Amino acid sequence: MSTAEATSDWKLPSQRKVGMISLIITESALFTIFVVAYLFYMGKSLNGPYPYQVLHLPIWASFALFGSSVTIWFAEKALHKGSKIGFNIWWLITILMGAYFVYFTAEEWYHLIYKEGLTISTNVFGSTFYALVGLHVSHVIVGLVLLTIVFVSSLRGKLHHDHHEHVEMVSWYWHFVDAIWVVVLLVVYIISLNY
Amino acid sequence: MATGPIDPNFKAPAPERVGEETGTWSHVIQNLVYTVDHKKLGLMYIGAGLLFFVVAGIMALLIRVQLFVPHSDFLEPAVFNRFFTMHGTAMVFLVGMPIIFGFANYLVPLMVGARDMAYPRLNAFGFWVFFFSSLFLYFSYFGAPGLYNAGSAPDVGWFAYSPLTSKAFSRGHSTDYWSLSLLLSGIGSIATSINILVTVFCLRCKGMTLGRMPLFVWLFIVVAFLVIIALPPLSACQIMITMDRYLGAKFFDTQAGGSAVLWQHFFWIFGHPEVYILILPGFAIASEVIPVFSRKPIFGYPIMVAASVMIAFISLGVWAHHMFTVGMTSLGNTFFAISTMVIAVPTGIKVFNWIGTMYGGKIRMELPMIFCIAFLFQFLIAGLTGIMLSVVPFDWQLSDSYFVVAHFHYVLIGGLLYTIFAGIYYWYPKAMGKMLSHKLGLWHFWLFTIGFHLTFLPQHVSGFLGMPRRIFTYEADRGWEIWNQLSTIGVPIQALGILFFVYNLIWSYYKGKEAGDDPWDAWTLEWACTSPPPEYNFEKAPEVRSRRPLWDLKHPEDPDWKFE
Predict the structure, then answer these.
(1) Which value does ipTM take for this structure?
(2) Does B270 touch chain A (CB under 8 A)?
(3) Comparing C-alpha atoms, which of B140, B62, B63 is closest to residue B94?
């Protein structure tokens, strides 16, 4: 309970927002180290397979993930307007697009492990690749869990108008996961294809 | 009387203990486990920290006994390695971190006029994660030898350089206990830091603008920011090392294209800000104690805030001064030498401002002030040897020598621990309702100070004479004996001082003088509560109009807010 809630002319930032921003800062620091490790080890593998041999630009997966940032925004707008149906539809589309991204990663890793023979212990490319992409996709999975919790409570009629900040926080997290994918896409699937 | 921000006639009722049973041990433990109260958790943090302080201190004592004479066989080499590793790791992660978080937990909500931390349950989570990760680290003594003849506790040093941590050189599970324990405690620290940030930004009482917060709170914002930026690199390190050891990843495997130097970079990207995470809370305590006992408001408040923020920023760009001997480029050496020297500037600003606060003040030589004055002298020595070590050629000579050991013990004992003592003498009356004995405190101060300097001053010399750190014994003809012997003699004197301190804590709890709500005639909000404060802190949300709300209250004819 905030001690300042009762007074009207004393405005403080929202707890949820400050907490989520802090979480995003600390997560960004974590990702930075793994991105630096990936960049540092580019071209340092002593044996193949090398990135240019096995990686392909994940166009559809990226499209799904970036698109989900747009659809979650539509869902929020629908919630603000009070349209439950609109919210549910856009929110479900967001979940499906996120789920497609996870499916893509599973497919890609299956291919890399069983067809190309690239595992975490094959070379430094394998170690850094699975660490960075795995860290990102684990965040996508956490995001999906959060999205699903919101969706289930919406279907059960538990989502009210005054929950829009809860929903907004989930969307902030989801946008953050998307923003990380911009970096991962650039570093892993574009820059490192030269090595 | 209506001009004051808080009703002076208002007396908070004695703390109620609703639904809380006392008496038997199981009730005590039940209360500790169930609690989400920031004050109890704060005291639990400090209590656990002091407990591990004694354990790690005993290890240091045994290390010093081993080094008393050349060719000593008091400790086996392997045991010696485990002791210095566990001593270092424990003092940083199990003693320093929990004690500073304890102070933050207890005082930040009180100082900003809030009823609790923003996320009380997350707060309890942070404590218990820290506590069990600490037990996990010590459990390595029993659980780590997975193989016949493999080591028990971690023995790779507190910064665990690669490739010493690879499976080939560190058999069994000792390194895994080390890395997983730090990964866990890192999660707890980050959770607590987010909690501090949210509490300060979102739960300040009416009128408590950022510019009116006590410097203590400001410094803990800076610390919390540093933790959430600098701890994740440590977590990343631990994830990578665990992947290397269990999944065959090649991060630090130099024979497969990995890099041992990268570990050093990643570790010190965490490790150097960590030094400031530990020392800034010391500054926080000094910034509260010195003004109150000089009877003057802090000198240069805005500059103090700016200097703290500058220290935090610069501290993120000095890490490789731990690595001059690795062989970096000249550009790298120059950059990190200069950034290290630059960080002395805001630190110097702070020291001058504390002296400026004392200058012309009516100084009261109470125990908190005595410890803070000692802190100023000792931290100056630590800072000067720090600047010496930032000069690259000097560092090439003395890196990994006892000179470095002396330097960082002056920082962490002479700087941090002295302010922690000051903080305990200052706020113990608030937390327990009893004054600590002045006489016992003086015994503690003089014994500990004599012992501390006797232990660590000679180590500068043995460092100059070329004695490397972390050696379990040495030859007789190096000229190191006398310095090591002086050093070792200092340790029992320090230990005696600590005994007086612990005895004082216990004796005063039962027999100490009643403290009253405001024994030091202080100015910040925590002294407006009863001692100890009730569970809800403030019955009525306080309202502040200046940086010294209690001054305004006690001096309605001359309040601070008239001059703001």
Answers:
(1) 0.91
(2) no
(3) B140
Of the candidates B201, B232, B249, which has its C-beta nearest A33's C-beta?
A: B232
The pLDDT of residue A5 is above 50: no
DSSP state of B256: G
Residue B23 forms part of a structural domain: no
Cα separation, B562 vs B246, in Å, equals 65
Cβ–Cβ below 8 Å for A120 and B243: yes
| CATH of residue B436 | 1.20.210.10
Distance CA A177, CA A79 (A): 22
CATH number, domain containing residue A143: 1.20.120.80
Between CA B363 and CA B357 the distance in angstroms is: 10
> Which stretch of DSSP H or E encloses residue A77?
helix A59-81
Return the SS3 of A70: helix
Per the domain annotation, does B155 fall within a domain?
no
Nearest to B93 by CA among B183, B225, B194, B195: B183
* Pairwise CB contact (< 8 Å): A19 & B232: no
- Would you say residue A28 lies in a domain? no
pLDDT, position B3? 42
Residues of chain B with pLDDT > 90, as a percent, come to 78
DSSP-derived letter for residue B513 is P
Give domain status of residue B17, yes or no: no
Single pTM value for the model = 0.91
Q: How many domains does chain A have?
A: 1
Give the single-character DSSP code of B467: P
Cα distances from B412 to residues B92, B282, B409, B419, B441, in angstroms, run 9, 9, 5, 10, 20
Of B194, B244, B259, the CB nearest to A22: B194
DSSP B414: I
Average pLDDT for chain B: 91
- DSSP-assigned letter for residue A104: H
User: Does A19 lie at the interface with B, CB-CB under 8 angstroms?
Assistant: yes
Cβ-nearest to B202 among A13, A29, A44: A13
Whether residues B230 and A29 touch (CB distance < 8 A) is answered with yes
Residue type for position A165: E
The domain in which residue B381 lies consists of 45-147+167-563
Domains held by chain B: number = 1
Judge contact between B537 and B109, C-beta under 8 A. Answer: yes
Closest of B176, B9, B234, B202 to residue B119, by C-alpha: B202
pLDDT tens for each residue of B350-375:
999 999 999 999 999 999 999 999 99
Chain B touched by A8 (CB under 8 Å)? no
Q: A13 in a domain, yes or no?
A: no
A15 in a structural domain: no
At A48, is the pLDDT very low, low, confident or very high (cuts 50, 70, 90)? confident
- Per-residue pLDDT tens for B226-254? 999 999 999 999 999 999 999 999 999 98
Q: Which domain holds residue A74?
A: 36-41+49-194
Q: Which of A4, A26, A131 sits opposite B204 (nearest CB)?
A: A4
Q: Is A6 within a domain?
A: no
- Scan residues 171-190 of B and list those with Cβ closer than 8 Å to A: 190
pLDDT at B283: 96
CB proximity list for B255: less than 8 A, separation 6 or greater: none
Of B234, B258, B307, B208, which Cα lies nearest the Cα of B548?
A: B208
Element of type H or E holding B446? helix B438-464
CB A49 within 8 A of CB A78: no
CB count in 10 Å sphere of residue B238: 21
Please indicate if any CB of chain B lies within 8 Å of the CB of A120: yes
B501 found inside a domain: yes
B341, with CB counted inside 10 A (0-12, 13-18, 19+), is: middle
pLDDT digits (tens, 9 = 90+) for A86-135: 999 999 999 999 999 999 999 999 999 999 999 999 999 999 999 999 99
Q: How far is CA B229 from CA A31, B173, B270, B296, B318, in A?
A: 11, 29, 8, 35, 15
